[in-house]
Design brief:
By secondary structure, this protein is an all-alpha fold. Helices cover 85% and strands 0% of the residues. It is built from seven helices and no strands. The longest helix is centred in the N-terminal third of the chain and has 19 residues.
Length: 136
């Protein structure tokens, strides 16, 4: 687990340095290590799935893989932390962002609207972003 945590930290540093390809390698390595050591339904792994998905979304690459990873992370957070967890709600917010990138605006609104009801202060901004995008 220690080696995986180092990989995660290196991935985060790479993102801050703008080296997202390098970050993908670190996050993927960390994910593989954690899957082997603690199984595929741990909250730490869900965070890695989200990190990888967010990089893919920002690069407009592999949106189908990003969708799978966001859905996996949401399922883990919901099962392990419950529906009212900030992590569960954030995963729905990220799903809304992904759906918006894919041009699926109605689905994005539905995903983000649910998070808005759960955590109104955090997600009211995302709903506004989706609404503005619809007007374009």
């Amino acid at each position: 687990i220690y080696t995986a945590k180092i990989q995660i930290n290196l991935g985060v540093i790479s993102v801050f340095k703008g080296k997202v390809e390098e970050a993908l390698i670190y996050f993927t390595t960390a994910g593989n290590l954690l899957e082997q050591q603690i199984g595929n339904d741990h909250v730490d792994l869900a965070i890695i799935y989200q990190n990888i998905a967010l990089i893919l979304i920002s690069k407009q690459q592999s949106l189908d893989l990003a969708t799978q990873l966001i859905n996996k992370s949401h399922t883990i957070f919901k099962q392990k932390l419950g529906i009212e967890s900030v992590f569960t709600a954030k995963s729905l917010g990220y799903k809304g962002t992904l759906l918006m990138e894919k041009g699926e605006y109605q689905e994005a609104i539905e995903s983000v609207s649910y998070t808005h009801l759960t955590l109104p202060t955090i997600y009211s901004v995302q709903i506004s972003v989706v609404a503005v995008s619809l007007k374009k």
